[in-house]
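On clarity, I found the account of how folds are encoded harder to follow than it need be. What matters is that the chain and its backbone geometry are given together, residue for residue. The format is easy to grasp once an entry is in front of the reader. For illustration, here is how one protein appears when written out as sequence plus structure tokens.
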Amino acid sequence: MEREYELLRGSFRMIKKSCFISSNIGKKYLVAITGICLSLFVLAHMLGNLLILVSPRAYNLYGHALVTSPVLYPAEIGLVLCFCFHIGLAIKLTFSNRRTRSSRYAVSATGSKATGLISRTMWVQGLLILAFMVLHLITFKYGNVYEVEYGGVVARDLHRLVVEVFASRGTSLGILCAYWLLAFIWVTVFRPPYKLLEYIIQDTSVY
């Protein structure tokens, strides 16, 4: 019985090692996919916020439609899970790479194989984006509540809150810096299609 148990454990380990998702390359793909999902959410959120340039009414009714939508809580839970999954896998990959390579390379890569500054400081950017998200939620989701009525519909006056927040130069500068940081991350994530295909072929051949 014990021998059968050991054989079963050995078979499970072999299946796990041969599984693409459990490999480092598979985990990198999952980090990339979850990162793209989060980036698409930010992009959609940003496009919706552009309604503030249309009129206070359009912006406030847009916010009211979001908070009264039945899919709000499932979407928020999905975003939190995606965010935690993205961070957890990234941390796991970082420690796995450090264990595998105990010392640095004697010669740094150059040309197309060189790692860019954006890629090398991705963890710092992630921490800054996390801090921005926390402050963003505190400021807007759980900030001051003003109400306004449109045709019998009582909505939160988010337009007034945004105007108040952006009246501070420091806050405006911080938010603009966060948007620039997101733009730099997107430059790294959303590569030209032929480059992405090239990386997929290379990674698959190594695997």
Summary: The longest strand covers residues 147-150. Residues 33 and 86 are 9 Å apart (CA to CA).
